[in-house]
Task: inverse folding
């Protein structure tokens, strides 16, 4: 998969691509990330990429022409058997959710456009942007962090990236539910706090049942919207409904 990133701050990406469990995803042949400094496509003589907004008001707006030059260079560099979608990031975008990540992971990659300042000239968005994504209802100073969030979520889905493929299958949301709580050594803390005995039973069926019940209970409490969606997608079985009816005590 190839991901091209058009950004004023390519240096914000370099560190993330070489650290942590996801670094394996960015090795050649997996997710090929190409960083395109927008300044390289700025208007001569001063490589200008932004200007004041028509109608006045605070801040600056990213200009159409430098962005179009950058996009043309990216398109020329990608062998576009299957043209990749242009994705930009703004609070006005569709909230990024796991199904969107899985959809992008199954495709030819993407061209990520990182805005800055007040935003991007709307004419560029109308003419060239296929998807506008949001990572949440707050205002950031640029699209780089949302782009890194998407890259991290994509990386986790690359085969062989997570030590154990089950990891992302059991991730929150991949089963439509929030993840169950996790415990590790010591079995008992200095203050006497222990670990749910189900997890110490060695009985894998009982452990799986306990974890499922905890996921259901936590999702019912914190994200009933997800539970309704999981129910609508047929992801909940009779045992799940029985567990929900029992309202298993949550350990958290
Ligand atoms: C944002 C978000 C976000 C808006 C103007 C960048 C900023 C600035 N993007 N989810 N929340 N973007 O705040 O995706 O250019």
Result:
């Amino acid at each position: 998969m190839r991901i091209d990133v058009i950004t004023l701050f390519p240096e914000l990406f370099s560190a993330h691509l070489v650290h942590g469990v996801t670094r394996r995803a960015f090795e050649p042949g997996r997710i090929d990330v190409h960083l395109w400094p927008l300044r390289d496509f700025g208007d001569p003589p001063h490589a200008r990429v932004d200007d004041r907004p028509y109608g006045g008001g605070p801040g600056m707006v990213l200009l159409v022409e430098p962005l179009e030059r950058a996009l043309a260079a990216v398109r020329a560099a990608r062998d576009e058997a299957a043209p990749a979608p242009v994705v930009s990031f703004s609070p006005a975008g569709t909230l990024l959710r796991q199904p969107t990540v899985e959809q992008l992971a199954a495709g030819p990659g993407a061209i990520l456009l990182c805005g800055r300042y007040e935003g991007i000239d709307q004419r560029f968005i109308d003419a060239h942007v296929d998807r506008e994504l949001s990572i949440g209802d707050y205002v950031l100073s640029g699209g780089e962090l949302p782009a890194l969030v998407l890259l991290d979520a994509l990386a986790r889905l690359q085969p062989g990236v997570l030590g154990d493929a089950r990891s992302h299958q059991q991730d929150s949301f991949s089963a439509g539910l929030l993840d169950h709580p996790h415990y590790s050594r010591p079995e008992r803390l200095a203050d006497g706090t222990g670990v749910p005995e189900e997890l110490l039973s060695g009985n894998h069926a009982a452990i799986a049942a306990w974890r499922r019940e905890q996921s259901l209970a936590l999702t019912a409490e914190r994200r009933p919207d997800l539970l309704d969606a999981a129910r609508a997608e047929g992801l909940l079985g009779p045992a799940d409904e029985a567990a929900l009816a029992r309202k298993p005590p949550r350990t958290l």
Remarks:
- The pocket of 4FV is lined by residues 89-91, 93, 115-117, 119, 134-136, 138-140, 142-143, 146 (CB under 6 Å).
- The CA atoms of residues 209 and 239 lie 9 Å apart.
- The chain has a mean pLDDT of 91.
